[in-house]
Amino acid sequence: MLNVADSEFGTKIYCDRPTEKHYPVHNLLKSNGCGFLCPPVIAPPVNILFCFREAVDLHLIVVKPYVRRHRVGSFSIFARRKTVKRKWGACTEHDNPFESMRHFGLATPLVSVALDKQPAETVVAVRLKDTQTVPIGSMLNTAPNVYAVQATGASSMERQKVCSVLLRINRMAHTSFSLCLGEVELWCSTPLESGCTPVLPMIPDPVSQQTPDRALDDESFQIPEDFLDPITGDLMNNPVRLPSGVRVDRTTLVRFQTERLDMQPGADPRPIDPFTMIPFDGDEVQSDVELKMAISEHLVRCKRLKDLCARLDNHSCFFIKPTISTVPQINIPSDSEPD
After folding, report:
1. Which residues partner with 181 through β-bridges?
2. Is 172 helix (H, G, I), strand (E, B) or coil?
3. Which of 23, 91, 290, 297 is in Cβ range 3.0-4.6 Å of 37 for a Cys bridge?
């Protein structure tokens, strides 16, 4: 099987909503990408379209529905077959992708997944074939929790010669503030393949399997949760306290208000609390001086510890040879020698 959610395969990806600068939708075509993230003002649904260079047969779709603290609550997957009028390999990359998204709205999804009752870090495995094999390079082999689902929304014929796949995010989780996706794998085989699939590990049952937390090698370098921005997940440099009591970075709040006014020109120009969506006056936001000092002290401690580790590493490069003391030899006369 081949993961066609990769730019090297010639797959193109489109999204009908704006994304964050450092989390574009093209990250989903990278094996170790950081995922894609929409601004907090974007409301669902969000459509993500994968257009293949040539038609493929879908076997397995793997979705990582979270990025840091942000998590998807529900999503649906659609598939579009190659039409008869097209030649082999001529897929939807030459069509208008947004027009293709509109056609998907009239189709029946292959599967719809709800993650409300699943653990936070759960990877979804959607099986489209009777085979229950997992590719060696799939993230299912290292996922802390796996939720396996069988696609029942389409016949087996509709899963063959697929030229595009649409992943629609229906809603976000209750504890999240941005629509996101961490990673997507589309394991397929072209009709030219022989169909011989090696025996690989089985997909776990739908019951999630919890694994122990992976602690860092040095806990001193861990950043406390209170120091991270709840919207972006980054370390706060200038934390402020909102009327709702939540602390965010000032740059995050300014960007939220700017993007909201850009998306809604006729909206109330007053600032809005991202967690309650209630307008407030600008003087109600106050800098959290104590939290800012705590973050600064934590960074200083981490820097000192890092410098100390570097000095210890430098000292370990020198090898001091042990001194060997020479013991004087005493000649002891034997019994045969005369006195």
Report:
1. 36
2. strand
3. 23
Structure tokens at 88: 């082999």
How far is C-alpha 189 from the geometric centre of its chain's CA atoms? 25
Q: Taking Cα atoms as reference points, which of 44, 10, 42 lies closest to residue 23?
A: 42
Instruction: Report DSSP state, residue 108.
Output: P
Q: Which of 25, 68, 47, 41 has the alpha carbon at shortest distance from 177?
A: 41
Q: What are 269's two structure tokens?
A: 């120009």
Question: Of 235, 150, 141, 176, nearest to 35 (Cα)?
Answer: 176
290: Cβ contacts below 8 Å, ≥ 6 apart = none
Q: What count of residues does the chain have?
A: 339
Q: Is the pTM of this model over 0.85?
A: no
CA dihedral angle for residue 294, residue 295, residue 299, residue 301, rounded to 10 degrees: 20
Reduce the DSSP state of residue 73 to 3 states and report it: strand
Structural domains in the chain plus CATH codes = 2-84+96-188 (2.60.120.260), 225-313 (3.30.40.10)
Tens-digit pLDDT profile for the chain (339 aa)? Answer: 788 888 888 888 988 888 887 888 888 887 666 888 888 878 888 999 998 888 888 888 999 999 888 889 999 998 887 654 444 344 444 457 767 777 666 678 888 999 988 888 899 999 887 766 788 888 888 888 999 988 875 555 556 788 889 999 998 888 777 888 999 999 887 544 434 333 333 334 333 333 333 333 344 457 888 888 887 778 888 999 988 888 888 888 888 888 777 777 777 788 888 878 788 887 778 888 899 899 888 888 888 888 887 777 666 555 455 555 554 555 556 555 555
Cβ–Cβ under 8 Å, residues 176 and 44: no
**Would you say 256 and 274 are in contact if contact means Cβ atoms under 8 Å apart?**
yes
Distance CA 238, CA 291 (A): 9
